[in-house]
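Reply to dn_fold:

You asked what the input looked like. This is it:
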Amino acid sequence: MRQLILLALVGLGAQLVDGSLGMAYGVTSTSLLLAIGTSPAAASATVHLAEIGTTLASGFSHWRFGNVDWKVVAKIGIPGAVGAFAGATFLSSLSTEVAAPVMSLLLLVLGVYVLVRFTTFGLPRHNLGKPLRKRFLAPLGLVAGFVDSTGGGGWGPVGTPAILASGRLEPRKTIGSIDTSEFLVAVAASVGFIVGIGSEGVDYSWVLALLAGGLVAAPIAAWLVRHIPPRVLGSAVGGVIILTNTRTLLRSDWIDASDAVKWPIYGAVYLIWAAALAYSIRQYRANREEERKIVEDSEKNQRATA
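and this is what came back:
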């Protein structure tokens, strides 16, 4: 029972982060399952089965709060489902030891770009509102879905920064659309795992525990992303991307850094991230005060000329 309660709390925390930042549910949950000895295929299958329920609840909540662009969901979700099914089916015979560091390096570059762009300039406006093209979203969805199944997580870390970096969709709708389309990915991956490994190694009580925690967190996360300022949210997402992929690279066979090297780097990333968030919050408050004064001056002028 204690283990099931712990899994439910992990599901709650993972969904709260995923629903607010558009990533990290699979990575968090899969890491715990692997730590207690679950095989990679069974761990990924367990998480994806739970995600069928959590992503459905999360998508519904994001829709209710106006965080979903359905055109983006369709354009990225269907190719994502294809990639997820392929990744799940061939997980037992595929190695991601080489692919993971390469992907982490690309995501790290995107994370730096997102953090600098949102912290320094705020919400991108020059492309905002322009449609995201299928020729961009389809390959992105295919790769993200494949990585998500083979790595036990990756739909958010791959899809969210790429769409944010385009500057064509505001952060809350990027996160809402990624979370909603993940339902298709979770269903396809689950079907792929059933075809590939059956139900062997999957503990359905663990699935239900993760699902229960995620269902509680889904509406809370959707509310948070609706009310967090885009500039602050963009900086937060950028920091998560940088920290996650820095950790992956330092632990990879490419680098295999010692603790004496890793911890100072982690400390530097945390300090830079904290400074970026503090700056974004200050600038948001300053801009909001400036806009308030402009509105007040406009109202005074209207009363004076009336």
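Residues 259-305 form the longest helix (47 residues).
Hope that clears it up.
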